[in-house]
Amino acid sequence: MEDAEGQSASLLEKKAGGGRTMYVEGCPGCAVDRRKAANPGIPYGTFIYVWIVTLCTALPISSLFPFLYFMIRDLNVAKRTEDIGFYAGFVGASFMFGRCLTSTAWGIAADRIGRKPVVVFGIFSVVVFNTLFGLSVSYWMAIATRFLLGALNGLLGPIKAYAIEVCRPEHEALALSLVSTAWGIGLIIGPALGGYLAMPAENFPNVFSPDSFFGRFPYFLPCLCTSVFAVVVLISCIWMPETLHKHKGSENENQSIEGLEAHLIDPKENIEEIGSLNTKKSLFKNWPLMSSIIIYCVFSFHDMAYTEVFSLWAESDKKYGGLSFSSEDVGQVLAVTGASLLVYQLFLYPRINKILGPINSSRIAAILCIPILFAYPYMTYLSEPGLSIILNIASVIKNNLSVTIITGTFILQNNAVPQDQRGAANGLSMTGQSFFKAVAPAGAGIVFSWAQKRQHGFFFPGDQMVFFLLNVIELLGFILTFKPFLAVPEQYNRN
């Protein structure tokens, strides 16, 4: 029978040092490590879980944006057309505000009880509260259901840790690329669903009558589709393997998870490491982690503001500087963008990362976004079909560049901490990101509403001001990717 020292040794990172690698029987983390050692190839089966879980958490975040403008109008909360953007921003912000309050706690829970239970609960919350949001009959019901959806949705942090843990080190870039790919596609497919399926009684009168259920709840159908997908993912997670190490009968159990809260609270806490005493670095003292999180937050703020602004700008009337697109038109643009993200992340990004590394690729992507955003307001001078062609090209390039940046920060964050801090680190990252993403829609809505009232201003009139401010944020993120601000894990110091 393996003794306590043997069990502790089995928790160490598996390295081929000439000795016999030891695993603890019945430990899910050891079972995954054993499979990784026996199968050096890409674990396509477990990568599917990474993909569908990430997609499940991304879809409800963005599916409301194409119809949010019309939803706020129908809820009769805005007294003037120009005020719709103001109220829409707070509905968009409520999800991220809820996630901001709970992400670190979900990350710690994932390190204590496992990745799988947190993921399953998060998917269940999507099923319940995303459905209720589609049935909202008042402005405050919409805000409350979005807030609870965010607060109880602890999926993204644990699934990023999970993606690293189910594969060998040489496949980590692909694993995290899958997370950002599914995330990016979810942020595109979600609005596409919202654009095509919202207000079905108006868009498909031969199928849905105004007196039908979907006629009385015009924004329920896209939410229902997302919730049905979440149910399918929830059922499939029955077979999802756990990756957290769990060992009974030893003082050094669960990879010293008892000390996780101490990482966040007491930087001087000494935690007994597996097989030896080792002083763990507080997450707040880990500057490679914290600097990459801050950069991640800046770019996340930009991306969320852009997502909000894009739909509002495209759907607003031309007399306010918009394109007068319908929700279906916006959905079509975003569907094309989503398809391009799938191709880019699966076939192009791994090669780009291999050549340039996560830091240089992020810098190049950030600087290329600036002229693209600068061009958006001038698209109002174009007419069809040129407008749709140019807008689709710009949207495809902009969103692929954004995913390049986010994937690079994912790689840096997850290589800045050991496995037993990875869940908490990703939870902390989600807390910061969620705060910025909560501020972004509200801020973007307020700025957008203000910009529409100054169509004849001297300095960047109308929507030119909105895209100018987005470029300022993008430039700030680009500057932060350089030393002395950005500190990186040792393996990336060459960048």
Automatic annotation (TrEMBL):
SUPFAM superfamilies: MFS general substrate transporter. It is found in: Membrane. Residues 46-489 form the Major facilitator superfamily (MFS) profile domain. Its main location: membrane. GO terms for cellular component: membrane. The keyword Transmembrane applies. Pfam families: MFS_1 (PF07690). The chain crosses the membrane at residues 44-72, 84-106, 118-141, 147-164, 176-199, 219-240, 289-313, 333-352, 364-383, 389-413, 434-452, 464-486. Keywords: Membrane, Transmembrane, Transmembrane helix, Transport. It comes from the Eukaryota. It is a multi-pass membrane protein. InterPro entries: MFS, MFS_dom, MFS_trans_sf. This is Major facilitator superfamily (MFS) profile domain-containing protein. It comes from Urochloa decumbens.
